[in-house]
């Protein structure tokens, strides 16, 4: 099942955006969920991940600016991004960690564009 991310858009440097993803309950339970991003010509990279206990890990370049969280009642994973920079421009994807567990697959992602 493709995991669909939403909430992207165009913002200026320093702005904020909040992304969300709603996998099925069977996917999210007992699964580390993560956000990834990809820019043209580059490999997809892991941005942040969160386990079922709320423990998180972040890409060094987003530490202190991005916050990943999960709402088990809503089966939703969030990525709140602030102090955005042009280098954060990418297509952002939601997936399990490691990716494509439990029948999950990459969705189309959501475009985040940060203008300078």
Features:
12 strands; globular; single chain; mainly beta; 4-stranded antiparallel beta sheet; 116 residues; 6-stranded mixed beta sheet
Brief rundown of the structure:
By secondary structure, the chain is mainly beta. It has one helix spanning 25-28, and strands at residues 2-3, 5-6, 9-12, 17-21, 33-38, 45-50, 56-58, 66-71, 76-81, 90-96, 105-106, 110-115.
* Low-confidence segments: none
β-strand amount: over 45%
Main beta sheet, described?
6 strands, mixed
CA-based gyration radius: 13 Å
Envelope shape: globular
Tell me what the structure shows.
β8 (66-71) and β9 form a beta hairpin. The chain has one helix at residues 25-28, and strands spanning 2-3, 5-6, 9-12, 17-21, 33-38, 45-50, 56-58, 66-71, 76-81, 90-96, 105-106, 110-115. The longest helix is centred in the N-terminal third of the chain and has 4 residues, at 25-28. The N and C termini lie far apart (36 Å). The protein is mostly beta strands and 116 residues long.
């Amino acid at each position: 099942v493709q995991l669909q991310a939403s909430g992207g858009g165009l913002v200026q440097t320093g702005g904020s955006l909040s992304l969300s993803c709603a996998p099925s309950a069977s996917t999210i339970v007992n699964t580390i969920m993560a956000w990834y991003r990809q820019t043209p010509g580059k490999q997809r990279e892991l941005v942040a991940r969160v386990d079922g206990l709320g423990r998180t890990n972040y890409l060094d370049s987003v530490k202190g600016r991005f916050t990943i969280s999960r709402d088990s009642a809503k089966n939703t994973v969030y990525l709140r991004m602030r102090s955005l920079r042009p280098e954060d421009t990418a297509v952002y994807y939601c997936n399990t960690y490691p990716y494509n567990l439990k029948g999950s697959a990459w969705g189309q992602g959501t475009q985040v564009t940060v203008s300078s």
